[in-house]
Amino acid sequence: MASHQQRTEIRDGMRIDWDVPITMDDGLVLRADIFRPMKDGKYPVILSYGPYAKSLAFQDGYPSAWQRMAEKHPDVTAGSSNKYQNWEVVDPEKWVPHDYACVRVDSRGCGCSPGFVDHFSPRETQDFYDCIEWAGVQPWSNGKVGLNGISYYGINQWHVASLQPPHLSAMCVWEGAADWYRDMTHHGGMLSTFWAGVSTTSTRSATPNSCSAGPSSTRSGSTAASGTCTARSTGCSARSGSVRTRPTGSRHW
Fold first, then answer.
1. Which of 6, 77, 106, 131 is most deeply buried (CB count within 10 A of its CB)?
2. 1 within a domain of the structure (yes/no)
3. 119: how many CB neighbours lie within 10 A of its CB?
């Protein structure tokens, strides 16, 4: 059974804090990775919260998408070792040199965080709020927290912004839907089956089917998923390895 203990190391010009605990208002402890400049100081924060495993390298989790992106958009990979690239969030090697702190949080029930997966629910949104407020008062933070991400990491920005976290200072939404019906499930009134597939398949990539210890990133060496999860706590089916999802975003939109 894998354990996730916070640890800090200096590598690739950054101070990296792995598996930092963040306690939610109901007592559940989520895990985050933090990439920040080596010198002491207070820095603006770029934060993301989502289900795609903070420590799962883009190249490992989505190899065909990585190959297409690298071939068609070489500027994305230029100037970086790409060891810390992660699906649909910022590359810390591009931002930390400009004096930003990058925080990646595994959402409840995914990656290294325990709990029940409930996509776009009020519970997830409150967790996101708590993470923003936590980041805003850390000794390495200047109190200004920005959000940046694609798709899932864009959609949930709209959700959490509705709660008006005091430390939320900026948002950068890429391909983030704002209406569950019109933008995601019924384009022009016609049923779209896209979300039904991606909500389970993508999360399954980041949550071990066996609900056992997850793989280590071949790039950073960090563990991508928890070994302490149970079928009940994560929504993983012990028999099929599927991930139970229950989109409830309409309650926010």
1. 106
2. no
3. 25
pTM (two decimals): 0.82
Distance between CA atoms of 62 and 189, rounded to whole angstroms? 31
Among 149, 60, 62, 66, which Cα is nearest to 102's? 149
pLDDT value for 194: 82
**Domain of residue 33, residue span:** 7-251
| Domains in the chain, number | 1
Tell me the CA distances in angstroms from 234 to 40, 57, 90, 183, one per residue in order.
37, 21, 26, 27
Cα angle 76-120-69, degrees, rounded to a multiple of 5: 15
Two structure tokens written together for 111 = 């990656």
Let me know: does 32 contact 102? Beta carbons within 8 Å. no
Non-local (6+) Cβ contacts of 164 within 8 A are: none
Residue 2 is assigned to a structural domain of this protein: no
| CATH classification of the domain holding 147 | 3.40.50.1820
